[in-house]
TrEMBL record:
Single annotated GO MF: transmembrane transporter activity
Lineage: Bacteria, Pseudomonadati, Pseudomonadota, Gammaproteobacteria, Alteromonadales
A biological process from GO: protein transport
Gene3D superfamilies xrefs: 3.30.420.270
Subcellular location: Cell membrane
Lipid bilayer topology: Single-pass membrane protein; Single-pass type II membrane protein
Keywords on record: Cell membrane, Membrane, Protein transport, Transmembrane, Transmembrane helix, Transport
Keyword field contains tRNA processing: no
Keyword hit for Heme: no
Protein's name in the database: Biopolymer transporter ExbD
GO cellular component term, pick one: plasma membrane
Main location: membrane
Length: 135
């Protein structure tokens, strides 16, 4: 028998997996780059109830106001004077993004108004205040 002939056939029948792996890695990089990540405020709040609350998609900038009137963005406590700069930076990264203020029901309304003003001065066109619906 001619065993050399069979050995040549076996070597020729192997499939090169390199191009397939290249395509898989390129797709993985594409999905990582194009995915959007939800940024949390970094503080737990009890949102007030509202009968007219409407569910919206999480996106843009989320600003948290705790019950002791601390302001949080991206899990960092910030000074009220720094709200404008942080919102400007976030809007530069995500143009046209909305600003959602998640204020605790025990927080001071004065702080909420200051945060809204600073967000508006930063160029935010769409500002919302988060509430809990009666579902």
């Amino acid at each position: 028998m001619n065993y050399e002939k069979y050995a040549e056939i076996e070597e020729e029948s192997q499939v090169d997996m390199t191009p397939m792996l290249d395509v898989v890695f390129i797709m993985l990089i594409f999905f990582i780059v194009t995915s959007s990540f939800v940024r949390e405020t970094g503080v737990d709040v009890t949102r007030p109830n509202a009968e007219t609350a409407v569910a919206t998609e999480a996106g843009g900038v989320q600003i948290g106001i705790s019950s002791n009137n601390e302001i949080w963005i991206d899990k960092r406590r910030i000074d009220p004077r720094a709200v404008r700069a942080n919102v400007e930076k976030a809007l530069a990264e995500n143009p046209g993004g909305a600003v959602v203020i998640v204020a605790d029901e025990g927080s001071n309304t004065n702080i909420l108004i200051k945060v809204m003003d600073q967000a508006r001065l930063a160029g935010a066109a769409n500002i919302s205040v988060a509430a809990k619906g009666n579902d």
